[in-house]
Amino acid sequence: MDDKVKIQLEYVVNCSPKVLYNRLSTASGLAEWFADDVRVQGKKFTFIWEGSEQSAEISLRKENKLVRFTWLDGEDSYFEFRISQDELTNDVSLIVIDFAEEDERGETTDLWNSQIADLKHILGS
Question: Exposed e or buried b for every residue in 66-105, given b needs 16+ CB within 10 A?
Fold first, then answer.
């Protein structure tokens, strides 16, 4: 993972942390916006996109706050969703942490922007 750079993106989402967490941590929630289909066996999630599959395991989870998926392809990389809520305004933010090759940073950011747009559409935010 040495040659990968960390990407951290933040999106304001107009829903409760509980509703958002459900879309980030369950197969049915993730299948609505993240992948074409998602299968779960225990902690292992298999994401299906246009016929290709990738598997990850939930390696960290804090209810309504955080979900981390570690890819099972041996590269020791992960992606993570963090939910934060501003104490004063109650605004809910989704922070996405991912890793990409330096030259794929823009592409990866665009992909997340597009996927989070789908998520926000589903959430009506």
Answer: bbbbbbeeeeeebbbbbbeeeeeeeebebebebbbeeeeb
CA separation for the pair 76, 24 (Å, rounded)? 21
The model's pLDDT over 39-51, given as tens digits with 9 standing for 90+, comes to 999 999 999 999 8
Structural domain of residue 91, as residue ranges?
Answer: 4-123
Which H/E stretch holds residue 42? Answer: none
**Number of structural domains the chain divides into:** 1
| pLDDT tens, position by position, 39-97 | 999 999 999 999 899 999 999 999 999 999 999 987 779 999 999 999 999 999 999 99
